Amino acid sequence: MQPSVHRDEVVGIENEWRDSEIGKDLKRVRNVKPLWSRFGTLLGIGLGGLDMWTNTLFGLSVFGTLKHGKTDAQSLEPAAKHKPIAYPKPDGVLTFDRLSSVFMSSTNHEEDQPVHLQVRDMELQKRSEHDVYGGPSTRYCPAGVYEWVEKDGEEVYVINAQNCVHCKTCDIKDPNQNINWVPSQGGEGPVYASM
Ligand code: SF4
Asked: Rounded to an integer, what distance in angstroms lies between the CA atom of residue 82 and that of residue 103?
């Protein structure tokens, strides 16, 4: 006989956010990006606009709920297929550097806490995330947690886990699904006092 597996799920939170004003807003626009990806900018955005209109006025969509077709991680392409984007530096008025924003989140983790950002295979991270994809974690992480740093002639993956603001992007976006985010000990993490 197979042992029974018991998993706790926080179903209440899922149901509550979907019933909230935010959940209702998101439901009305759910098909916009899938339509855009499928039919291109001109037709896709036109259909997306039509879909938002029927959702808002009649509460329904002729498309139902469209899927994206692939996961966020699968949508990444090798760096060689793209040109780097030169983003303007933060101006300190409307845009801010990442570490200032981390400071505002009052994120706090014990220095010696158990690892809550787990890289399953470091060699794969170097061979693929760094060498093929150009180290996207150094850009998509809003807290600047991940860095590729040269040490003794080798690129070393540095994880500044104490800055993590628990957005879980790395768990979702890593091209090889090689990063596992787990809750940190004792509820440590960001404290958004004004939210
Ligand atoms: S969970 Fe978010 S903030 Fe934390 S390391 Fe991953 S991407 Fe960065």
From this structure: 32
Rounded distance between C-alpha atoms, residue 193 and residue 104, angstroms: 9
The ranges assigned to domains in the chain are 11-69, 75-187
- Give residue-wise pLDDT tens across range 117-141: 999 999 999 999 999 999 999 999 9
Q: Which atom of ligand 1 is nearest to the CA of 167?
A: 2
User: Would the CB of 143 count as within 6 Å of ligand 1?
Assistant: yes
CA of 171 relative to ligand 1 center, distance in Å = 8
Measuring from atom 5 of ligand 1, which residue has the nearest CA? 164
Query: How far apart, in whole angstroms, are the C-alpha atoms of residue 178 and residue 136?
Result: 13
- Cβ distance 157 to 122 under 8 Å? yes
Q: Which residue lies with its CA nearest to atom 4 of ligand 1? A: 164
Residue 11 has what pLDDT? 83
User: Domain 75-187, CATH 3.30.70.20 — does that match?
Assistant: yes
